[in-house]
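ingest -> fold -> write
write: protein_1
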Amino acid sequence: MDCIFCKIIAGTIPSKKVYEDDLTYAFADIDPKAPVHLLIVPKKHISSLAAIDVADTALVGHLHAIANRLAAEHTLSKGYRTVINTGADGGQTVDHLHVHLLGGRQMHWPPG
């Protein structure tokens, strides 16, 4: 498989790991858009949110629970944003489902 996130999870591409469990791997984004910008990815390769099915419901919830945990660990008590880009028009650039956790500054709306 030629998925950069799968290679990061496997350790063949280096990353700044911030969390790992049996289902997920989280690391710092290499092009951060906020003081805290982490990516939370499932270890199971799922191309995008559009590719999930009912069997993935708990996994998607787990990604969000980990985002909440990491927000607390990074002292984002004033708030944070989670984003899942889906498809080219949604801004997805890596075809592996992932949650962006952004915080440490005031977020604006609309995001862009």
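write: protein_2
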Amino acid sequence: MKPDVDYIGVGCGAFILNEKNQILLSKRSKKSRNKAGYWTIPGGRVEFFEKVEDALKREIKEELGIDIKIIKLLSVTNDIINEENQHWISPQFLCKIVKGTPKNLEPKKCDEIKWFDIDNLPDKLTNTTMNGLKYLKIAYKNWFND
């Protein structure tokens, strides 16, 4: 049995913001399990017996080579991808970098990573990213304007 196809998969994602109020996104490669060519927040699958927060920190370290601090939970998305017969539940967290500079360490899964202004994002965004953005815009105002 396969997670996200035979049963609901659990993922996690990080809205990582920098000091310029920009968000870090990655572009999914043609070899991605779903949503190839779409921009998304970094993250990945939660493993069995792994806490969501620990999975997020592990995934970010594996994908980008950075350590993050989780600031707060932003939202939880039901990502039902009918055209690819997949279903994911994914909490998204507001995060900041505490160590390192982001690098694309998984070029087979991700074509590129890039910082974007919050009001100038690319068109092709994943459902999880779009849903979390609604909550991010509220949270980041309070975070950066305190």
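write: annotation protein_2
The longest strand covers residues 67-81.
The beta strands are 9-16, 22-28, 39-40, 43-45, 67-81, 86-99, 110-117.
pipeline exit 0
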